[in-house]
Amino acid sequence: DGIRDRSPSRGLGDVYKRQPVISPIPDQSTDEDVALTVAFSVADPDTDLQTLRFSAATSVAGLIPPAKIAFGGTGGQRTATILPGVDLSGSGYVTLTVSDGVLARLSCYGR
Question: Which pTM value belongs to this model?
């Protein structure tokens, strides 16, 4: 799982860039109008962990608005705090993505 970098500025010949890794996240649930904080870990053998970028997508944007998902933590230990839509109940999926700017990896969970 990687790409070849033949950048002459590296001076190392062929270098393979590897994808970041995000831990599996089990299905989660929360009560109506109650925020949920999900812990997960990340790793990337080629990139400083502080420079990784995170994003989220949801299967039901009204129930789980992507704009209401905030990322926290440092290094390899991270969190996603999800604030569901007001006065709504139901189920859906959340996909968290970690990117090093070149390659990305995702973890999906739901209920």
Answer: 0.81
